[in-house]
Design a protein that fits this description.
single chain; alpha+beta; Rossmann fold; OB fold (Dihydrolipoamide Acetyltransferase, E2P); six-stranded mixed beta sheet; five-stranded antiparallel beta sheet; globular; binds adenosine-5'-diphosphate; binds magnesium ion
Amino acid sequence: MVDIALRGVWKSFGTADVIRGLDLTIRDREFFTFVGPSGCGKSTILNLIAGLEEPTKGTILFDNEPVADLSPGRRDVAMVFQSYALYPHMTVFENIAFPLKVRKERREVVSREVGRVAELLGIGDQLGKLPRELSGGQRQRVALGRAIIRRPRAFLMDEPLSNLDARLRMEMRAEIKKLHRELGITTVYVTHDQEEAMSLSDRVAVLSEGEVRQCSRPGELYERPADVFVAGFIGSPPMNLFGARVTSEEPLRIAALGAVLSPNVSAAPSGGTVMVGIRPEDVEVDTRPLPGGLEAEAELTEPVGPYEWVDLNVVGVRLRARAEAGKVRAGQRVFFRVAEKRLHVFDAETEKRL
Ligand SMILES: Nc1ncnc2c1ncn2[C@@H]1O[C@H](COP(=O)(O)OP(=O)(O)O)[C@@H](O)[C@H]1O
Ligand SMILES: [Mg+2]
């Protein structure tokens, strides 16, 4: 168990600055996730923490001790990757036992610990099998078992669920969450999947091109995205984002969607236009007039069970909204209403939240 601090960490490969000034502390026992699109530097960060790469600038500390001089082995972290990297010729038992064998633990200890871990992961009856005889989910459980058996100071997980199909991914997500709760080991998790990040983590750092755009609890990322990038990246389906003209500064009023809207903001914009965001779940649609509502054409509907997403054409802007299941047909004239207090407003110049 450990807290992990990154202080002014930069990493360059040749002339490419891949990590650009990381400053944050992952707390002891925390489930901390780096999320961002492919190529933004997630794996590089894990490699830096593990000691497989060295920072170009800056310091990494475990419990306030710089780790630059510690080899990967002596940092005592366990990594789990997207590809399971099991030893194909070894049984499940031998794969899980491997880290203890390396430490030359006594045979009774190995046997007891492998049994305990396999039970915890629900693969107690698979111990005699070879990896090729297992399903993808079972193989990833074996990889997790091998990581947790030696109780490392921290887990580093690099997109461990990306190779699994949707249903298994959900199952394993719950499994990983349970493991973290039971073992209480600091976990640094990496994924490109914002939903996975939101559902697993105590805190999430949203990365873009090697920089942290926001580091917050999941609820805060959803409720108060710090900039346009985070607003568009977090949430599914994504937030509607469009430009709007400022008609009054104090209080802020903006002309958008064929109306004048009064959002809740705490700062003034730097120019005469702003970027505005509204989540589809904060736009209500009905076939009957809504008090204070506006008219639009429904262009497309996408049923998702209990409700449906409706793409509206509002004076040329596409606005995604949520309607009751089966309520709206494509091509129909409908009425919609935006929850004004749920509008997100960003400076047009800096793209930061106002
Ligand atoms: N060893 C390396 N040498 C050169 N470039 C690298 C190396 N490792 C990663 N990169 C580059 O750094 C960037 C970030 O890579 P990576 O950390 O793997 O991103 P992610 O895991 O978020 O997809 C990419 O542009 C990648 O091509
Ligand atoms: Mg990666």
